[in-house]
Design goal:
With 412 residues, this protein is mainly alpha-helical. The chain is built from 15 helices and two strands. α4 packs antiparallel against α5 and α4 runs antiparallel to α6.
Length: 412
């Protein structure tokens, strides 16, 4: 009861001081609000707007400190300070509304307890009211007007309706802000693309050539450095600008470009194989092996030298440019494998070799090595695995030409 009496006296004295100096206290017990009130009292005393005695300001400050102990005022004769930093409000609007609702429910319970004779309830109410007012003031600064609080059922229903309307309004404003931000982002991207295209169109030809020449590496060392930097950037997963003159690896292509490249290459191979299949059985074919007479039947060799391919220049060039066609034709004539099956195996494995880190290339080497052994059996030639492996590893064109000559003239 003594505490309640002290609070009531302090509040009356503070109101009287404010009225005498025409200073109004906002009612929020915070450091900022308390200092604003004391600053008003000081200005009024200095300008003689009110009749201030010697210790008028100090008395007002002590009264304010007693009324709002949470403000932490430090009073002097003509100056007041507080060490507390105003709390930073981090709660959202809806969180503040929920706190006000909870505090109001507690205040209504305390008022009911005071009506039932609970003496200390008024002290608790006095502590709770500044907290509610502080949150209401924060909401008002955000443009949200809180309805009148009360303990009647009608007041509670009005606050619930206010809370529901506020939530819908905030959701609507959030959706609108997102739509505006998305629209602005699209407009910004479109504007940048249009500016880029406009600059490209307006760029003179001579300036384009000058910029291109500036971008090109000046020496071989610069070119090697640019290639090394590009490789490091690709390995680290960072995005780099394209360096003119530097051949990027297949990993820089998208999967769609990669698939289209394979399909185009395969289509070219198939067209060439089809055209060659139409003429490969005709006599006097330009790329047919030139007769060399009777090939001796020996058991330790094919009877045709591996490096005798240069004696038939046209056949050698054809085997060098289109090894899959010449190799498939040889196996088909020897009765070891059908032409289209042999061509498909050779073409697919060779096309995929650069994109499988050479794995299909090794598989193609094994296939050619295996059918060279079968050709030895076909013509009763003694096996020589080391020679066959080295022939297709280092001299594949010579091996293809040799097998074509053996197939054409061995039996004859």
């Amino acid at each position: 009861m003594q505490a309640e009496s002290a609070v009531a006296v302090n509040a009356t004295d503070l109101q009287a001081l404010g009225n005498s100096c025409r200073c109004q206290f906002a009612g929020l017990c915070s450091c900022v609000q308390a200092l604003e009130f004391m600053k008003c009292i000081q200005n009024a005393c200095d300008s003689k707007a009110c009749d201030c005695q010697n210790h008028h300001f100090l008395y007002a400050c002590h009264t304010m400190s007693s009324e709002c102990p949470r403000a932490g005022l430090k009073c002097g004769v003509k100056e007041a300070t507080c060490n507390e930093v105003p709390p930073m409000v981090t709660e959202s609007t809806m969180e503040l509304v929920a706190e006000i609702e909870e505090m109001q429910e507690n205040r209504c319970k305390l008022e009911k307890a005071v009506a039932d004779g609970w003496i200390n309830g008024r002290v608790r109410i006095a502590e709770l009211e500044p907290q509610i007012e502080e949150r209401i003031y924060t909401l008002e600064r955000r443009g949200v007007r809180v309805p009148k609080l009360g303990c009647r059922d009608k007041d509670a229903e009005a606050f619930i309706a206010f809370k529901s309307d506020l939530k819908k309004q905030m959701e609507r404003e959030e959706a609108e802000s997102k739509a505006v931000a998305l629209k602005e982002n699209k407009a910004s991207i479109k504007g940048k693309m249009e500016d880029k295209e406009h600059k490209k169109k307006k760029l003179p030809k001579a300036e384009k050539e000058e910029k291109t020449n500036e971008a090109l590496p000046a020496t071989d060392a610069d070119l090697a450095g640019a290639a090394a930097e590009t490789g490091e950037a690709l390995a680290s997963g960072t995005k780099t600008e394209e360096v003119p003159g530097v051949v990027h690896s297949w990993r820089s292509l998208s999967w769609l470009q990669y698939a289209l490249t394979l399909l185009v290459n395969l289509a070219i191979y198939v067209i060439c194989a089809y055209l060659y299949d139409r003429v490969r059985h005709k006599p006097n074919l330009p790329f047919a092996p030139i007769p060399v007479g009777v090939v001796p039947r020996t058991e330790d060799d094919f009877g045709v030298g591996l490096f005798s391919c240069f004696s038939d220049v046209r056949l050698c060039l054809f085997a060098f440019c289109c090894p899959c066609l010449r190799w498939a034709d040889t196996l088909d004539r020897a009765g070891l494998l059908k032409y289209w099956i042999a061509f498909t195996a050779f073409a697919v494995l060779s096309i995929l070799a650069p994109y499988t880190f050479g794995i299909t290339g090794l598989l193609l080497l094994f296939v050619c090595f295996r059918y060279r052994q079968l050709m030895r059996r076909r013509y009763n030639v003694a096996p020589n695995n080391c020679q066959d492996f080295l022939a297709y590893t280092f001299c594949s064109t010579c091996a293809v030409v040799q097998e074509a000559k053996v197939e054409a003239y061995r039996d004859k």
